[in-house]
Amino acid sequence: MFLFIPVLVIVGISFVDGINNITCISTPGQKNTSTILTNLRREMRNAGIGIYVVFSDDEHGSEYTQPYDKRRDWITGFRGSSGIAIISLRTAALWTDSRYFSQAEEELDCANWLLMRHGNENVPSPFIWLVTEAQQTAWSLGTTTVFTSSAWWSLANTALQAIGKQLQPVDDLVGRIWPSNERPKASQKPIVKHDIKYAGQSVTQKLLRTTTELQRFDATVTIISALDEIAWQFNLRGADIPYNPFFKSYAIIYTNYIIHQPKLFVNLAQINRTMYPVGVRVFNYSTFWSHLNETVNNSTIEKILVSAQASQAILNLIPYDKLILPLFNSPIERIKAQKNSIERKGMRDCQIRDAVARMKHIGWIEQQLNNNIPINETQSVDRLLYYQKQQVRFKFPSFHAISASGDRAALVHYSSQPATARPITKNQIYLLDAGSQYLDCTTDITRTHHFGIPKDLEKRAYTRVLQGVLAIADAVFPTGTYGRSLDYLGRMYLYRDGMTFGHGIGHGIGHFLSVHEGPHRIGSEYNEYEEPLTDGVFISDEPGFYKPGDFGIRIENDVEVVLAHKSIYDKRQFLRFDTITFVPYERSLIDVTLLTNTQLDAINKYHAKVAQILEPLLKDDEAALNALRSRTKKIHSQSVTTTTELSNKAFISISSPSLITFVFIFYYA
Ligand SMILES: *[C@@H]1O[C@H](CO)[C@@H](O)[C@H](O)[C@H]1NC(C)=O
Ligand SMILES: *[C@@H]1O[C@H](CO)[C@@H](O)[C@H](O)[C@H]1NC(C)=O
Ligand SMILES: *[C@@H]1O[C@H](CO)[C@@H](O)[C@H](O)[C@H]1NC(C)=O
Ligand SMILES: *[C@@H]1O[C@H](CO)[C@@H](O)[C@H](O)[C@H]1NC(C)=O
Ligand SMILES: *[C@@H]1O[C@H](CO)[C@@H](O)[C@H](O)[C@H]1NC(C)=O
Ligand SMILES: *[C@@H]1O[C@H](CO)[C@@H](O)[C@H](O)[C@H]1NC(C)=O
Ligand SMILES: *[C@@H]1O[C@H](CO)[C@@H](O)[C@H](O)[C@H]1NC(C)=O
Ligand SMILES: *[C@@H]1O[C@H](CO)[C@@H](O)[C@H](O)[C@H]1NC(C)=O
Q: Where is the Peptidase M24 domain (predicted)?
């Protein structure tokens, strides 16, 4: 699953006085937020502010949040994962991007809220609107800094400078008015040790790696607030956040960690003493702020390293002259992305288990269709989970699977629901983007299927996407190369047919952590926090093509960055990818006439390997074996059922208003 989301921040501010497209029709199904807004405005006045911004984030900038933290959902009715709410004393508005327009039209309380379709022409950005609203009132404006990213805070303040205003930090006003009988309980799931047989390195070994990085920056201490970094550093896992084995926590790590042991802050009710990592002082989560206050003020602490993703609340406490600037990635993010040998082995091994589940699932779908038993999108996901649960060390899905039939496959961020699930049939595309959390890895695999006879255009698009997957997989590049330099490879075959797509090609993948992790990616846009690809990094390879109202294609393999040769000219180390996903491509969707011999050869070799690995593991499942064999049979270049060769000129015009800029969620979340 791609993680690229449209930027909800626009850096250049221009005061366009355009027509706001804020049409949103009030319907009886929408939540009535009148009372909530009345209460919230009362709290705003009490806090001395006239404008308040509410984000969808928790204190840790998490990609997924637990129900307890869905403040923005509760005050607006809108449940999409991306959106910012701004409430003034006279009005209220919600910004979301094109992935969520229709969901917002359905769920947002349109009687009380304006729907700002971010990216549409004449729709002001949150910053422009903030400035315009702030000009109308003498009140000041504020956000709750624990939920505000430092990037958002400084961009907003830059915009507000023009009118001589500034954001004020305020308490969590939504938390104050959310009745405890309406608010979901905060997760209290136990925190458990992540066994070294999966983690590969002890907490002490990891501390040595982290503090070696801290020394490079001349830092005395670092403050860690990202939940995946803490889980990795201390070899602990939890279950506070959906799809992620994380627990709410902070950490303070001193460079001199032998003398000044690291401090870990977790809810003590969630952890047994036997789980405490050796050489680490464990404190209650709520005491983090006073410890931070003490630490940053201590005269022996000279330089403090904080990641650019930390909340503004953390930055506000740190004396400016102690802060290491410019803010950059956390050192743990970089170290963690470069997996150790045990983690690497886990990442490869569990792909085979996930592939077994996927083949059993495909076999099942084919069996149902052949027996005319109707199946739908959500039922399909349930069945996949049934097969995944049979695999050893499986824990839970790594994200909400995208299971999309027919034209729904063109909705990049589609989320099927039982009540509206589409049937999967023999005459339509079926796209399945799903991933797993195993104790020894995280996976993310997309296959686009067709169980009957596809249209020529579907085959053509599928083949172009596949050529992109192969071109990325085949890349060889010197150390120091950024993923953005490879992005074109994944698109160049699509371009020949005038096809494009609006998301990045790859995101980093964690090890029994987040399915999306930095600081690596493959995407064309410049991102100041991107770091060059290195040996041991795992990343997705997932080009796509989407024809709205018709069909969508995406193929996603996970790949491992490995060492290639050393240059004989300048001794430079070269890198390449190893594809670690072993699920066959959809033979019926491959248009052989478009392929070069080299590409055909690569597909045949891949399929031979897939068959060799999976056949013995599927021997007691005939449907799965059939599905495997029919897909992995050698493809001959002459055995082509002729398709009309279309001109190489652009012949599809996608009139999409939403060809949007994408950015990594963890940089702006
Ligand atoms: C407003 O946005 C909706 C949905 O994106 C669109 O259908 C409508 O045409 C737009 N109206 C104007 C006036 O731009
Ligand atoms: C929403 O709730 C308020 C307060 O209870 C009420 O006055 C108002 O009529 C309701 N609005 C709708 C559309 O039902
Ligand atoms: C701590 O251990 C006890 C006994 O093994 C167990 O009953 C309890 O659930 C554990 N608590 C947590 C938070 O793991
Ligand atoms: C930890 O902090 C929470 C919240 O402040 C509090 O309810 C709890 O009693 C504390 N636990 C301990 C063991 O101090
Ligand atoms: C930090 O310490 C200062 C001075 O003692 C105090 O005013 C402030 O409230 C403290 N902040 C936190 C978050 O504990
Ligand atoms: C931190 O240092 C500043 C400046 O010396 C002082 O004003 C503040 O009270 C101190 N805070 C704490 C918690 O000691
Ligand atoms: C400051 O830090 C040093 C070493 O980290 C510690 O020994 C000392 O007690 C701290 N001082 C205060 C006032 O916390
Ligand atoms: C999809 O299948 C599930 C499971 O059988 C069922 O509960 C649901 O009602 C179906 N959805 C539709 C729209 O038929």
A: 346-561
